[in-house]
Automatic annotation (TrEMBL):
GO terms for biological process: vacuolar acidification. The gene is LOC107460114. It is found in: Membrane. Keywords: Coiled coil, Hydrogen ion transport, Ion transport, Membrane, Transmembrane, Transmembrane helix, Transport. The keyword NAD does not apply. It comes from Arachis duranensis. GO terms for molecular function: ATPase binding; proton-transporting ATPase activity, rotational mechanism. The chain crosses the membrane at residues 412-436, 457-474, 537-555, 575-594, 626-644, 745-765. Belongs to the V-ATPase 116 kDa subunit family. This is V-type proton ATPase subunit a. Signal peptide: none annotated. It is a multi-pass membrane protein. GO terms for cellular component: vacuolar proton-transporting V-type ATPase, V0 domain. Residues 90-117 form a coiled coil.
Length: 808
């Protein structure tokens, strides 16, 4: 299993007996190394063989979703208890789910009816209490008024009182009409409009009394807690009564009967209280049964859900197979790795034995010109780096995989821009925390940003390790240098030179053994020195990586047996790139070793403008002028070398390949199948103009890209400088400035601001920025030299790829 090139794939055909089909596909799903082709693409989902079984699975999935909704409402979480203790068949599961659903729905309906009755009785009790209090207070008030009236009549009455007054009183009592009344509850927010509408509809011929209920009550209809008021409306006449009833219905007011007889009131209150007590007990028992039922479902929910997802996936795969009615077998075609041949054969044999089938499954390899899928065998470390490459494009079958080199080059280029071993340690600790707790986080649902960070935890760890390495080279720990490996090689000649410039420094020891000498920090020549160093280093790294990309194009051409690409693409590209920028890298290294003062800008510019002029003081070595002339001529020759030969050679190769194929046997023309478009004698036409234009575009792209891509690597210098300067600003202008005030409060505030700025800007924003720039360097500058990326991923049928988020 090689990560440099994708696994060798083969197209296979499986002939499976109908009785062993389900078990065979299920075992292949456990193996997860076969990608099936859909042989029924012209059929709709309802016309396929196993549409009925998929419909059954859909119905069972609906039942499981119902169970999950009820468990969420009840606060019951699915557990993995008894998941592997029992094996259940799909038919038994269907029967069991139907029974449980019927039991659950019946229990739910009964509970809802009981709860509805209970809520009505609670409201009825409140009406009895509140309206009873109103009637009691009104009756007491009437009795007091009657007594007062009787006393006044006794005191004022005499034998001289006229008899006519007694007759009027008797006549008035006879004319009194008994009023009717309606009582109930109305939502508090509707009580004022309710009263207003009653007054207007009856033209004021009603008397309404309301009482506020302190606590919210459960509404019998909606089942939600609502603030309500108890009301009683007195009226006269049937027409007024009908209007009041309609208004009550419109405002959602629940009406309840009430008796003005005190004895009947107490009797009704006792009856309602007794019924409430009985209903409460019954509801509690029903809820206990409902909770017990949901808990029993929760213990097996994960097992049932997994089984249903597996069965549904198996039947979907079976629907991709061709059904042979005559031979009573299923025909399957698909891709699999070559190394999995023996494993697949063993799985098919085991499925045949387990089903007691008389006929075994047939496994045979098919020859095809179809491009196979791309399959790289990765682990949890290499998969995240492979995803970086696949995000640009999936590798063509068997072409060189840049993911192998990305494991090293990606974090290294990131670290060149991010180099600070203090910041690197912080990122490393964060990535190690994710790696240590990966078992816990892998089974949890994380947010989008957290999921991305967790998925790339090994990439982040590698970036942090390389950042620590480049931080030691730059000698920066939160922008502060340390003499870790040895004392500085330089010292001041006298105290006046300290922190001013490097003019007064003299070399008193051996050169600092690793990285940048700490004495450079804070001097006036620090920035020009670091600019020159990092800019030249960026060019060297860029030329090296681009050369690696071109070398990989050679290995691709060699592997696919394309000598044209070797001699007319790889060779001229190497000559052109290294004649210009390879030479630039050479003179940079020579200047470092010799300590020359030559101006490299001048050398490269006048190499093109005046190649025959003397170099003068810019000459780095003997024979440099003639070498430049030779390299310039080589670069000029390489351009037509890339452009012209390849299209003509491809045309010649095409003519030789199809020479004589236009002739055919006389009798072959009578066969409509052989004379069709798929005839072996037919071939595609060769468009020379199309090939030439494509090669012209490719040549122009490479020539211009050689310049622009080299300049693009200068982002390594720019971002490294920006990161260093930002870190230095936060340290000097925040932390040290707060320290100089000699105030504890200011120091604490300064430390907090420094930490927030470091984490927010340098550890988050700068990390993301450097990551994106490193990504661009790999996708554009590196991969476009050799990577085609027009393949498609190997997507095997595997139960391991079924996640909890897959739709049931």
């Amino acid at each position: 299993m090689d990560l440099l090139r994708s696994e060798p794939m083969q197209l296979v055909q499986l002939i499976i007996p109908i009785e062993a089909a389900h078990r065979s596909i299920s075992y292949l799903g456990d193996l997860g190394l076969v990608q099936f082709k859909d042989l029924n693409a012209d059929k709709s989902p309802f016309q396929r063989t196993y549409a009925t079984q998929i419909k059954r699975c859909g119905e069972m999935a609906r039942t499981l979703r119902l169970f999950k909704e009820q468990m969420i409402k009840a606060g019951v979480s699915p557990s993995m208890q008894n998941t592997r203790n029992s094996v259940i068949d799909l038919d038994h599961l269907e029967v069991k789910l139907k029974e449980l659903e019927a039991d659950l729905l019946e229990n739910k309906a009964n509970n809802e009816k009981l709860q509805h009755t209970y809520n009505e009785l609670v409201e009825y009790k409140l009406v009895l209490e509140k309206v009873g209090e109103f009637f009691s207070s009104a009756q007491n008030s009437a009795v007091a008024q009657q007594r007062e009236h009787d006393v006044q009549t006794t005191v004022k009455g005499s034998i001289d009182s006229p008899l006519l007054l007694e007759q009027e009183t008797t006549a008035f009592s006879a004319k009194q009409v008994k009023l009717g009344f309606i009582s109930g509850l109305v939502p508090r927010e509707k009580s004022i409009p309710f009263e207003r509408i009653l007054f207007r509809a009856t033209r004021g011929n009603v008397f309404m009394k309301q009482a506020v209920i302190d606590k919210p009550v459960l509404d019998p209809i909606s089942g939600e807690k609502v603030d309500k008021n108890v009301f009683v409306v007195f009226y006269s006449g049937e027409r007024v009564k009908s209007k009041i009833l309609k208004i009550c219905d419109a405002f959602g007011a629940n009406r309840y009967p009430f008796s003005d007889d005190l004895g009947k009131q107490f009797q009704m209150i006792r009856e309602v209280s007794g019924k409430l007590s009985e209903l409460k007990t019954t509801i509690d028992v029903g809820l206990l049964h409902w909770s017990t039922l949901l808990q029993s479902i929760g213990h097996q929910y994960e097992q049932w859900s997994l089984l249903l997802r597996r069965e549904k996936a198996v039947y979907h795969t079976l629907n991709m197979l061709s059904f042979n009615v005559t031979r009573k077998c299923l025909l399957a075609e698909g891709w699999c790795p070559v190394f999995a041949t023996s494993q697949i054969q063993k799985v098919l044999q085991r499925a045949t034995r387990d089903c007691n089938s008389q006929v075994g499954a047939i496994f045979q390899i098919l020859q095809t010109k179809e491009s196979p899928p791309t399959y790289f065998y990765t682990n949890k470390f290499t998969s995240s780096f492979q995803e970086i490459v696949d995000a640009y494009g999936v590798a063509k079958y068997q072409e060189a995989n840049p993911g192998v080199y990305t494991i090293i080059t990606f974090p290294f280029l990131f670290a060149v821009m991010f180099g600070d071993w203090g910041h690197g340690i912080c990122i490393l600790l964060a990535s190690l925390y994710l790696i240590i707790r990966e078992k816990k986080y892998s089974s949890q649902k994380l947010g989008d940003i957290m999921q991305m960070a967790f998925g790339g935890r090994y990439v982040i760890a590698m970036m942090a390790i390389f950042s620590i390495y480049t931080g030691f080279i730059y000698n920066e720990f939160f922008s502060v240098p340390f003499a870790i490996f040895a004392p500085s090689a330089y010292a001041c000649r006298d105290p006046s030179c300290r922190d001013a410039s490097t003019t007064g420094l003299i070399k008193v020891r051996n050169t600092y053994p690793f990285g940048l000498d700490p004495v450079w920090h804070g001097t006036r020549s620090e920035l020009p020195f670091l600019n020159s160093l990092k800019m030249k280093m960026s060019i060297l790294l860029g030329v090296c990586q681009m050369n690696l990309g071109i070398i990989l194009s050679y290995f691709n051409a060699k592997y696919f047996g394309s000598s044209i690409d070797v001699w007319h693409q790889f060779v001229p590209q190497m000559i052109f790139l290294n004649s210009l920028f390879g030479y630039l890298s050479l003179i940079i290294i020579v200047k470092w070793f010799t300590g020359s003062q030559a101006d490299l800008y001048h050398v490269m510019i006048y190499m093109f403008l005046s190649p025959t002029d003397d170099l003068g003081e810019n000459q780095l070595f003997v024979g440099q002028k003639f070498l430049q002339l030779g390299l310039l001529l080589s670069a000029l020759v390489a351009v037509p070398w890339m452009l012209l030969p390849k299209p003509f050679l491809l045309k010649k190769q095409h003519e030789e390949r199809h020479q004589g194929q236009s002739y055919s046997l006389v009798h072959s023309t009578d066969d409509p199948i052989e004379s069709g478009p798929h005839s072996p004698h037919g071939h595609e036409g060769f468009e020379f103009s199309e090939v030439f234009v494509h090669q012209l575009i490719h040549t122009i792209e490479f020539v211009l890209g050689a310049v622009s891509n080299t300049a693009s690597y200068l982002r390594l210098w720019a971002l490294s400088l920006a990161h260093s300067e930002l870190s230095s600003v936060f340290y000097d202008k925040v932390l040290l400035m707060a320290w100089e005030f000699n105030n504890t409060v200011i120091l604490i505030v300064g430390v907090i601001v420094f930490i927030c700025a470091t984490v927010g800007v340098l550890l988050l924003m700068e990390t993301l920025s450097a990551f994106l720039h490193a990504l661009r360097l790999h996708w554009v500058e590196f991969q476009n030299k050799f990577y085609v990326g027009d393949g498609y991923k190997f997507a095997p049928f595997s139960f391991a790829l079924l996640s909890d988020e897959d739709e049931l």
